[in-house]
Amino acid sequence: MIDDPTTNVAGPVDTDEEVQTRSNTIVRPVEHQMPLELRDVTIRYEGGGADPLTIVEHFNLGLEAGTMHCLAGRSGSGKTSILTVAAGLTLPTAGEVLWEGESLDEMDDDEIAERRRALIGYVDQGGALIDGMSALENVLLPAVPDGQVAERTEMAKNLLDLVGLGRRMHHRPVQLSGGERQRVAIARALILGTKVLVVDEPTASLDREHANQIIGILKDTTRDGITVLVATHDQELIAVADSRTYMN
Amino acid sequence: MNPAARFLRSRSLVVTVVVLVAAMVLSVFIQARAQIAINDVVDKNARGLYDILVLPEDTGGSGGTLRQPDVVSGTGGITAAELQQIRQVSGVAVAAPISLVSKVVQDAQVPQLKATDYVGYTPNTQAFIDQQGISDAVPKDQWPAPDSVLSDTPKRYRITAKAETSDGKNTTVLFENSAQGTLGQGEVVTEKVPGGTSVRTVAPDGETGIKFPDPAGGTFHGNFDVSIALPTLPQISETVVAVDPVAEQALLGEAGAFLAPLAKAPGASGRNAEEVGQRFMDRMSQGFSAEDVKSGIYHEGLPFKFWSPFLFQYQSAKEAGSLTDDSQVIPMVVRSGTELNLKYSVTIEEIDEAGNTIAEVGTVSRNLGEDYLPFATSKPFELRWPGGKDYNYLLGSGGIQVASGLYQPALWSTDFVSRPEYSAGEAEANGATDQTVIPQGWVQVNKLPEKTLSWQTEPDTTQREPVSEQSYRQSLQAGGETSAPLPFVFGTFDANAVRSAAGDINYLPLGGYDPTPLTLVEDAQGNDVEPVALDPGLSGAGLAVQSAGAITDYTGLAAVRGTSAEDPVIDAIRVRVNAAGSWQSAREEIAAVAGDIAALGLHTEVVAGSAREDVSITVPEYRKDSLGTVSALGTVTQSWVRQGSATGVQNALSSSSIALLALTIGGAALVTAASTVTFTRNRRAEAVTLRAMGWTRGRIRSWFLHELLVGAVAILAVAAVVVALSRNWVTALVSAAALAIYLAAAFTSAALLKPHPRPDSAPAGGDGSALVDNAKTYAARQLLSNRFNSAAVAVSVGVLGAAAGALVAVLVDLPRAVGSSALSVLAVNQLSGLNLALALLGVLASLMLTLITGRFELPRKREQWQILTAMGWGPGLLLQLRRWEAGILGVLALPLAILGSVAVTLVIAPHAVLRAALASVLAVLIWFIVTTRTRK
Questions:
Q1: How many other CB atoms sit within 10 Å of the CB of residue B579?
Q2: Which residue ranges are recorded for the region named Disordered (chain A) (predicted)?
Q3: Contact B875/A116, CB-based, under 8 Å?
Q4: Residue partners of B605: CB distance under 8 A and separation at least 6
């Protein structure tokens, strides 16, 4: 539960100042089209018979291309919920999610899936790889729906090289360490030339060395114009972000 | 946590055991109900009017086969002494003999066409009323004015008389004759005659009447009618059987009440035709009062309508000199109505002098089958002029017409009859056997009379259009020299009521007087036709023979055939055993009595436990037309008797029911086993934790085994209860098998549980394997990576398919297994609901368990689908994925399903293999549909 709703409610996106507060995140002016934008988002879980649990209320977020924004806060503060909403994996109770200015409310499931492939790369906490498939195949998963596996294979290998796993491409998830799995997941998120990378706790449960590798990879992606939205409580990752939101 | 608590915590496992236990309880309950129903149906329908059929020693065949309905042959073979011996056998309640006596050829009345020529109330009318003493005539002032369908001025008419007959398939015109003449309304003429005044009706001037060719008469003007004699009807033959009326009544029960008059008939000494004839002539000479007429003119307990025909024949026989001192009266109970289809119609046209039709007056017709009573008829065979009215009521009871049925002594003949011969064709799957009737010689049917009426000199044969029909009967051996017997009707019976009393399912032929109709179902070309009951041919010599027209006793038989008391004239004896209760409880006693009778040197067939069976009979060479062209009839069906049907039905149904039970529980137990193994294997992580806590492998195995044994205890407890309730060894066996299967699964799964699971190895060849690039390859990779669970689900689906196929095979096989008798059909119909429920229960239980087994993979799959969704896989692609996964599993399961169902079916119902295989494929398909729809 949010301790004090009045201080946690995100306000309107109406300023061009970079703000770091506990409650509101105003990242950039919104006069032009942003790759990812959350408007007045409320996430509430109805608990069968129990009181509804409000995770966030009136939350606003707008991200410019080539920037990294951190959602920081304690476990259970709603970081992952915002990420899944931002990635279009769940829909908010109220409010609007816009990808390049297009509202998800106007899309059906198939359209969301199609747009997500083109725009969003999602990296789950722990990597979330498919057992029984090699690292290379996991990286190529997003290319399957469009039948681009063959065309993207070389790129997948390059991405695995980029994340330092070129020699482990035929290994399965159970044969990879936690950090390696995270890196495979990041490579997978980038395979379709994504514009927004949504990453959940990429350095959790990693040692510092591996955590720094991940941070480096994420920072590198922003230089290619990719927007990164990351949820973390890793102070080093928070420090390298272009903007931040602290959540209770 | 104790094992029971751990077991209950494993909800999926609990659900599988609960489903298995529920399937056991329900299936045993349904099977028990089915067994009760089987016994009930068989008991109620497996014992007919008699238990043993006794035939002469040289009768071929034996029990356990089909018995045709002709149990009387006319050739006899059993003596009265042997009948007495049978009656003295311990346990015999009724021994009712029956024999075919003869046939009687009769001439029906000369039909008349009556144009009512009503002249109103005349002085002559009052004189008639006074003379006859008619007290209930309509008063004079209420008589209508003169009326007639004919005009004052005579007109010319053409009258066409037509007689046609049909066996239900072929219609034959016997004759179609026309005659023409002039008819007009009669005139009342009052004349002075010596001693008074004569009032009479005369034809108008210029009327010529209408004359048909001989042997018909001409036109006659009466008080109320113009009667035109029409061409005579063909001869009609009726068969006569002999029974012991007392024993026959005992056999039929209440339905045999019609035999009471025959039972009261005098013995041989009281049947002298001359003496009886004289007694009734004396009564006739006394005249009748109006009260007599009203009450029916009974004499010696018999109504006038019965003794009038007898007297007519008595007089005719005396005139012909055929009556001898030995001539006897033959008391008979005759059938109500004839079965002959003979339609007589008259078309009347008004014509001009040149014979051209001016107007159609109309057509009138009557059917002999509906209007004729053999040996005696209550009313003349007359047709009314179209539009004519019946004014007989004006004379009250004096207007009743009483006419005789025979015009000359009946001709008793033994020139026919034995049983038809058949050759058995191939047996069908359900045990039914097609028969082919063997033709005998050609006989002429639809025979017109060769008789000379009183006004004729030569028999008229010009009207005859003979048709030949194959005789399927051989001549009956004639008895000794006989004197002319005179039939005397003592009462009537309703053949259909007797047939009804004989029963339907447990039908046993009585022997000649219960009709066994033939129904045409296929024409000569083998095409199906609308089923039509065939009517007997007019000669009585064809295949379709009408039931006996009359029943007499053995004294009558001796008089007709000239046999003595020692002659073996009894064709068959129907014996009922003095054993109360159902067929089940009486069968041993019946068999013992049959053995005792057989020891007397007679052929016995135990017919208790038999049932009616409709036999298909192919009839070749049925008719020959006037050009000599021979044509077949086609295929007919007739009710025969399947002996041993009760045993067959009971055994087959019980076996099928048990097979369904075994398949239901067996299938459910196998799938439960697969489910248990899969579930336990999915708890490897738990085993790893326990191992980390320092548990030995054996301890870990016991830990899980004890948990699984709780399920075994539950199954054992339920099995004990259902076995105790059903008291059935099959239930015990099947329950034990289910428990054994579950225990085997428990031990196997515990043994397979490895605390140190090796990660599934990389694909063979590492990077050499094909990349996952679509839903199909993804599904294949996943199933391969989780091959144990995939195999378990595939085995479950295979077992489901095999069980479904085998269950369908048992259901399909039921009609074959139980046979084709009426009892089989009844039993199968009555049990179809229970059997279907049992089979459905089996399929549903297996389907549920299979789905539960598939759900063990669900958490992992959900996790994967979430990842794939995050990777941009849309709902359509995920549905494709689910379908590919289920499809591949289904394809893997299909061989097991088909082979399993085929293997089981080959054992229990080989002919249903194809349908079983199809059913197994269908079951797998249903699983595919359900599983791809429920996994969300």
A1: 20
A2: 1-21
A3: no
A4: B52, B53, B55, B61, B62, B63, B67, B594, B643
- Of B762, B785, B867, which is closest to A124 when you measure between CB atoms? B867
- B639 and B672 co-located in one domain: no
Higher-scoring residue by pLDDT: A3, B860: B860
- B639 & B748 share domain: no
Interval B564-578 mean pLDDT: 92
Q: Do B875 and A117 touch (CB under 8 A)?
A: no
Distance from CA of A189 to the nearest CA of B (A): 8
In whole angstroms, what is the distance from residue B893 CA to residue B801 CA? 8
**Region A83-96 average pLDDT:** 89
Any CB–CB contact under 8 A between B833 and chain A?
no
User: What is the C-alpha to C-alpha distance for residues B799 and A149, in angstroms, rounded to an integer?
Assistant: 38
CB-CB under 8 Å, B774 with A147: yes
Domain-located, residue B770: yes
Give A118's contacts in chain B (Cβ within 8 Å).
872
Owning domain of residue B382: 112-231+341-372+376-399
- The number of folded domains in chain B is 4
In chain B, which residues have their Cβ closer than 8 Å to the Cβ of A140?
771-773
CB pairs under 8 A between A and B: 103
Here the tokens at position B599 are 């020891």
Q: A5-247 has which fold?
A: Rossmann fold (3.40.50)
Chain A residues within an 8 Å CB radius of B868: 130, 141
Whether ipTM tops 0.90, in short, is no
Residue B69 phi, psi (nearest 5): -75, -15
Average pLDDT value for chain B: 83
B908 near B814, Cβ under 8 Å? Answer: no
Is any Cβ of chain B less than 8 angstroms from the Cβ of A192? Answer: yes
State the pLDDT at residue B377. 60
Pick from A120-129, B13-22, B274-283, B491-500 the range whose average pLDDT is largest. B274-283
The whole-angstrom distance between A197's CA and the closest CA on chain B is 12
- Asked, for residue B586, whether it belongs to a domain, the answer is no
Does residue A175 or residue B418 have the better pLDDT? Answer: A175
Domain-wise residue ranges, chain A: 5-247
Q: What is the pLDDT of residues B804-859, one digit of tens each?
A: 888 888 888 887 888 888 888 888 888 888 888 888 888 888 888 888 877 777 77
For B468-482, B491-505, B717-731, which range has the lowest pLDDT when averaged over its residues? B468-482
Alpha helices in B457-540 (DSSP H): 495-501
pTM given for the model = 0.71
pLDDT tens digit string along A35-53?
A: 899 999 998 887 655 677 8
Establish if B278 touches chain A: CB-CB under 8 angstroms: no
User: Using a CB-CB distance cutoff of 8 angstroms, which residues of chain B are in contact with residue A149?
Assistant: 771-774
